[in-house]
Automatic annotation (TrEMBL):
Reactions catalysed: 2-oxoglutaramate + H2O = 2-oxoglutarate + NH4(+); 2-oxosuccinamate + H2O = oxaloacetate + NH4(+)
CDD domains assigned to the protein according to its UniProt record, in alphabetical order: nit
GO biological process: asparagine metabolic process; glutamine metabolic process; oxaloacetate metabolic process
Family: Belongs to the carbon-nitrogen hydrolase superfamily. NIT1/NIT2 family.
Residue intervals of the CN hydrolase domain: 4-248
Entry-linked PANTHER family: NITRILASE-RELATED, OMEGA-AMIDASE NIT2
Source superkingdom: Eukaryota
Gene that encodes it: LOC100180707
InterPro entries in the cross-refs: C-N_Hydrolase, C-N_Hydrolase_sf, Nit1/2_C-N_Hydrolase
EC annotation from Swiss-Prot or TrEMBL: 3.5.1.3
Protein name: omega-amidase
Amino acid sequence: MAALRLALVQMAVGSNKLENVKRACQLVKDAASKGANLVALPECFNSPYGTQYFKEYSESVPGPTTELLSQVAKECKIYLVGGSIPESENGKLFNTCSVFSPSGDMIGKYRKMHLFDIDVPGKIRFQESEVLQPGNKLLTFTLGNCKIGIGICYDIRFAELAQIYAAEGCHLLIYPGAFNMTTGPLHWELLQRARALDNQLYVAAVSPARDDKGTYVAWGHSTLIGPWGDVVATTEHSEETIFANIDMSQVNEVRQNIPISKQKRWDVYTRPSICDHHEKSDRSKKTKDCSGYDIDVNKHVD
Ligand SMILES: O=C(O)CCC(=O)C(=O)O
């Protein structure tokens, strides 16, 4: 296939759901017309971001929003990572990313696995778990020779998730996200570079544009990090789409030059010894927590 050209759409999100989705589709078309064959939208792109909005804006997946995403993916003949939207299923709510192939088929959906529950006194308190349920399945898909894994925002803080995707053979991780003005400046890029460097792969994170008057003010700065830990493309906080090519030779090169995945000392740091330590430090936890990487992966190969 042709070179993989990624577009990260840092779009402005307002309070009108249909307008948000139409805007997203228009920006996806613009990105495709400029040569992108893989386009990603931000976290919570059809709704303002906040626990008070999730129920009102939620819908089923597949549903009205994903139908429009499917149409635009098909019309533009691109792969589309549909950011995330509040999803409802049987009375439960999830923060869900759906991914589409160039034929408009939904490859799969990924539900945010680590819910964003933080409390930084005087700065920010956010408790997604008050209204959302966590997902428990990974999602990968393959485009040419590039395997891609999906996470959502807070998921990027969990090195284990990225490590599992790397072990599954991923070369690029895409995190629709919406960091904030407290954690964004210090952590957003650092976390992306950390995940990229640990796993020697590309990491993309795509945010909504900043709305200073919104109830949640996003940090913006959508970014692509390369497998050497370098910033390949980035932006400030206004609405903008950034473009970059994914160069698989960079992934192969760094993995050959610095072969850390073959140098791991699993004989020393095996999961059971982590579990022993974990159990000693918290006797109330069940050993079930330490059952290893026994996790469901939805796979799609093109
Ligand atoms: O981890 C953070 O600091 C921000 C996470 C976040 O905004 C999210 O999960 O939506």
